[in-house]
Amino acid sequence: MREHVDDAQPGTPTTEPTGSGDTAPAASPTPAAGPGTGTEAGPSAEGPSSEGTGADDAEAPVDKPKRGRPKGSSSARTTRVVTLTLTVSGSADGEWQAELKNGSSWVARGLPVTAAAVSQAAAALHADLAGPIDEVIETARSAKAARVAELEAELEQARKALAEME
Predict the structure, then answer these.
(1) How far is it, in rounded angstroms, from Cα 127 to Cα 28?
(2) CA–CA gap between residue 27 and residue 92 (Å, rounded)
(3) Distance between CA atoms of 135 and 118, rounded to whole angstroms?
(4) How far, in Å, CA of 6 to CA of 26, rounded?
(5) In this structure, are residues 30 and 13 in contact, taking their beta carbons and an 8 Å threshold?
(6) Contact at 8 Å (CB) between 83 and 102?
(7) Nearest residue to 104 via CA among 130, 119, 82
């Protein structure tokens, strides 16, 4: 098949069968398609063609504009991610402290926090967090209550000993 420019319609390629069955580019040049000209270069501009043996497929149109937005030049704002790390740690005797890190720099370290505040914060965040934290707080609370009872018993013994000395 051969391409040639029809005189009735300038710039419009047409095909004619040849005796050899091969496809060859037209002898007369066709105007190049550019942005805003309204013409497309070659038959592959309209999509895949069922005619030809693939010789025209090797010549991809270079000036064909792509549809949609170009990649990487989005005018939308990107979301800035801020990484804050809050670490709450407690000891067996019920003393809690908090540390806050912004990225790799420390904002606050070793701030004392009450057990009630830790429990409220855990409950506000998620129920799966509140359960284990409340268990640890309750264990520490019962240990403190046992220590208070022990100290009260010692205090009572000391008062009795003082009363006997008088």
Answers:
(1) 78
(2) 92
(3) 12
(4) 12
(5) yes
(6) yes
(7) 82
- Tell me: the pLDDT tens digits for 26-37? 555 555 555 555
Tokens (6 digits) for 1: 């098949």
- Dig out the tokens for 107 from the structure: 């904002």
Handedness of CA 71, 72, 74, 78 (dihedral sign): positive
pLDDT tens digits for range 4-58:
555 555 555 555 555 555 555 555 555 555 555 555 555 545 555 555 555 555 5
Pick from 28, 17, 25: nearest CA to 44: 25
**Residue 108: beta bridge partners?**
100
Element (H, E) at 152: helix 127-165
User: Taking all residues of the chain, what is their mean pLDDT, rounded to a whole number?
Assistant: 75
Q: Which residues contact 59 (CB under 8 A, 6 or more apart)?
A: 42, 44
* Tokens of residue 4, six digits: 């040639």
Closest CA to 62 of 41, 46, 48, 38: 41
Task: Estimate to the nearest angstrom the gap between the alpha carbon of 109 and the chain centroid.
Answer: 29
